[in-house]
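Course assignment 3, question 2. Fill in each field.
Student: A.L.
Task: Predict the tertiary structure for the chain below.
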Amino acid sequence: MGIGEWVAPRRLGRDFRWLFASSVTSNIGDGIALAASPLLIASLTDSPVLVASGAIMQFLPWLLFGLHAGAIADRVDRRALIMVANGIRALVLVGLCVFLVTGITSIWMVLVVAFLYGTAEVFVDTTSSTLLPMMVTKPDLGIGNARLQAGFLVANQLGGPPLGAFLFALGSFWPFAVQAICVAFAVILISRITATTRAEATRAERERPAVHTDIASGIRWLWQNPPVRTLVVIILAFNVTWAAPWGVLVLYATEYLQMGPVGYGALTTASAIGGLLATVLYGRLERRFSFATLMRVCLSAEVLMHLAFALTTSGAVAFVIMIAFGAYAFVWATISTTVRQRLVPHELQGRIASVNMVGIFGGLVIGQALGGIIAQVWGLTGPWWFAFVGAAITLLLVWRPISHIAAAAPVDDEDGAGEE
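Answer field:
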């Protein structure tokens, strides 16, 4: 089997390959910004509040516009929406490059740019997650999501950040110029998709309810569907516990473990390495084990990871733990996305995906706020102990419902099982 066939199996179709190529290209650009954006902000201000505001500008659009993005994605041609939103992202980046080249950039200007870019990104990410179920069969959703996740890890987490730091050293505008090119190229790639990407393509156009009515109908469907509702609650709860220690990870690594800045960078990269290792095994895992088993193993590993971080004082041990985290986090992300996509009707994919994303980012905001307070009062291992106890309690509560979630979205269906 050639590497092209392994990365994007032919049975997933040509449209999947265009989607994969567009996702990787866009993620290279976002990975570049992952390193370059904090460097740019730090070069413009030494205020911790303003530096932190750069990250807040990435979360805030999700809380403000996430649900609306999902409702709009269910109303229009999803491919076209992604192309328009990515086009806006490219234009915003071009504007930033002009500001940087002319030397009129200020911290406030950069924060506004971050907010505008983040708002467009909400529509891109929400809508992108709805395309895969429209172009592959249900049995192939697992492999399709695994390949998209692998592309994200390589482009966004491993390849992009070092390139972004290198380009920033050449000149502050270079990383964002390259990012703009990547995003623009992603528009061209996504335009090559030929499959119908409109959820209601066969329905005659007629009066549509207000957007908030569509949002309410999506939330009502979610509330009345116990498996999907429980899955969203699990994701919210585990993101709160996960984000609590992650918000102070840089201090935990550099001060408590004495790893230094380079060690902290290696620690964050370790999770991407673990995720890449999991890509090799995912197909075998999906064929050999039930979704319920895999979900329970992943969540149990999360609980044990928090405990291990709370107990260890070794940077080397922390590095190994982080590789394990990257591996099981990749499997969990792939399975949870696959389960949701199998259970949600095409016409609701955008709205339910947006609720899921709002839950993720809401959990991150709550968890990071709690983590900072806990670390301030009880020390840098305090958030890990909080995460361990909170995740363990959550796991006990959802242990049995996981069976119902998995049973509602079996790996095999009447279309036949996919192969690695």
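Instructor remarks: The radius of gyration is 21 Å. Residues 145 and 334 are 6 Å apart (CA to CA).
Grade: pending
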